[in-house]
Design brief:
With about 190 residues, the protein is mainly alpha-helical. The protein has helices at about 5-35, 50-60, 75-85, 90-110, 125-130, 140-155, 165-190; strands spanning about 40-45, 45. The protein is about 70% helix and about 0% strand. A two-stranded antiparallel sheet has the order 1-2.
């Protein structure tokens, strides 16, 4: 093989990789601007959809980052959810949802909106009762519906790809909603002298 053949062979084998590299360099800004519109990205176990929807829920509730952790709750329950999120993010999400349902049902019972014997009730009925009792604002009801969809995905998808941080953020939002419902119920309760 002479030098001229070697150079021709080298150019032939490097032509496509160089063209791809040049195309990427020229198109990187348009590609980057289009990536912001993605709502779902999957790579092995990574899924960005859940985190993005948690952020949307936080914005809808008009919470700044970190606000949801300022909600008073027992240190034991916070520690339990953190440990659970580390071990099983899916289980932490389900537990946080159950905690909200228990708080909401209890608050409605205290206001005599639900009978004392009422256990956990179907979500549509619970949501309607919370809104009727004015324990949940419209934006919170909308956010709660979105969080329910996320909870369902976490509970029912084969590999939901939820990380510990996203599960913790979900739990924090649920704790915030629980505290809001409970404090509004407390304010509505008749005061005895």
């Amino acid at each position: 093989m002479d030098t001229l053949s070697f150079v021709a062979q080298l150019i032939d084998s490097l032509a496509w990789p160089i063209m791809v590299l040049l195309a990427f360099l020229f198109l990187r800004n348009p590609i980057a601007s289009q990536l912001q519109w993605l709502t779902r990205v999957k790579y092995k176990e990574f899924e960005a959809e859940f985190s993005r929807q948690i952020e949307a829920a936080r914005q809808e509730l008009q919470l700044e980052p970190g606000d949801e952790t300022a909600v008073p709750s027992s240190p034991e329950s916070q520690e339990y959810i953190q440990e659970l999120a580390a071990a099983s993010p899916r289980a932490a999400i389900v537990e946080a949802w159950i905690g909200f349902e228990v708080t909401a049902t209890s608050s409605l019972r205290q206001l005599d909106v639900l009978p004392e014997r009422a256990e956990l009730i179907p979500f549509p009925r619970l949501l309607a009762a919370l809104q009727q009792a004015e324990l949940l604002f419209p934006n919170e009801a909308h956010t709660l519906k979105e969080l329910r969809t996320l909870r369902n995905k976490a509970a029912h998808e084969y590999r939901p790809g939820i990380d510990q941080t996203s599960a913790q953020k979900f739990a924090d939002l649920m704790r915030n909603l629980s505290e809001s419902v409970a404090s509004r119920a407390w304010e509505k309760m008749p005061k005895s002298c």
